[in-house]
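User: Can you write out an input/output pair for a complex, sequences first and structure second?

Assistant: Here is one pair. Inputs:
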Amino acid sequence: MGYFSMMFLYFDPGLGAMLVQAIVAAAAGIILFSKNLMYKVKSFFGLTKPQEDGIDAMEFEQDEKQPNEEQSS
Amino acid sequence: MKSKAHRHEASFRDPSGFIFEDGGTVKRAINPIYFPVYQALCDNDFFAPLFKAKMLIPHVEEEQTPERIVLKPDQLDLMTYPYEWSFDQFKQAALLTLKLQNYALERGFSLKDASAYNVTFYKGRAIFIDTLSFDFYQKDQPWRAYKQFVMHFLSPLVLAHYHGAEVLKMMQNHIDGIPVSLVASLLPKRTKLSPTLYTNIHLLAKLEAKHNDEYKPKSRKMHLSKKALSNMIRSLYDYIDGLELKQQTEWGDYYNKTNYQPEAFSFKKQQIDHWISQRALKKVLDVGGNDGTFVRALSEDLDLAVVADIDHNAVALNYAQVKANKEHNILPLWFDVAQPSPGIGWVNQERSPILNRLSKWGPEVVLALAVIHHMTLSGNVPFEDSARFFAGLSPLLIIEFPKRKDSWVDSLLQRKREFINHFDHYHQEDFESAFAQYFETLEQVEIPGSKRILYLMKTRS
């Protein structure tokens, strides 16, 4: 069976909303670029704090194991 | 399809599958149309890291036939909805959605919807619950769920930033998110100078209005590189991450502002702790629970304490502690006892009323500390009605009654001015006889250094 992209238009994505993304993304590109530049300048002078929870961060909690360890001991 | 008979009321929008109940267990059925995506997700080991990072509700595959696949997810204790979250909870839900979209894009998938109802709070954190929201990423295509993300997440958060947390309750009126044209008109003019808000709200509203009547979407070729899409997601993430409520800066010693005498406060704590640990109660609903101070003082290792409060600041402060201490068993709930969230959406059942969800969850005890005078004197709810309300929630009730001479009660009564005589019924005797219709009092103690009484009551069978 072939799979069709976005199989059903089960909600309307909005034509305006699809078109605007090119502009939103362009603005976002500029914002991110200038942010990165600022970050580099700041870190050159040692003014940056380590970033804890960015979009790429995946936090793996360790504490889940504790109850099992308690049970086994 | 016999299981369709048990399909959950909220589960009809997406043809990929549906939620159903099987002997009290909530399960997810996948329809054949979604099999290729599901298979690809499994083949790419898409789910396991998300389970581990507690970003997606874990599930096990229970059944696989040519007609359907059945997943059994971890069971939620209590589903809370966007209009029951504090600003920061809302923000975490938005950030989680963007994180997932970013994660999906890197692996050749994309979120096909970005509804705020795809997220809830479980074990102290925001978690994505709609396992079937992932689809294949289509090369150079814009994000279909973008507008939904703006309506469900960005709009309420930005409005709350400018107008206060109360705005988040607008979600109760707009199950599909807040219309962009409305948001654009409500935002201050100066927001047009913000590149993020200009493009994501004002320009979006303009283009949506312009293209509203076009019915030939295929005639327009839309093209957005993956890099551009990723920039859009990252920029939204950074922007929302930096959003704050102005009122949050006023917190400080929140509990100190409420007028408790230290001795009365600690007596109350000990007494309640004694009653709860004596019966080893594990599921507690604290109505008017403020920032969760009381449930945190309990020595019993609770499965879950739902701490409901009408005051956004209290809920926000509670969630801040849940987050900071990584507490798994406290669920902050923004809740007005005089106006609990109703059933909304299709046949008023798509999103169920909070009272139904609470009673289904089934708290073993309800704490009603320093709320009855507000219910009776501010809300004008007769004692008998509040008694019936509490009796419908749980078999046990711990209730604090401030006597007529209590300073708070006096202040509430003074506000009634010439109508003060209409509240002559606010007396211990009237309270006790009204509650006696629904409850039997197991114990009662005066709180020393106060004009308040604590009761432990059990519903009459």
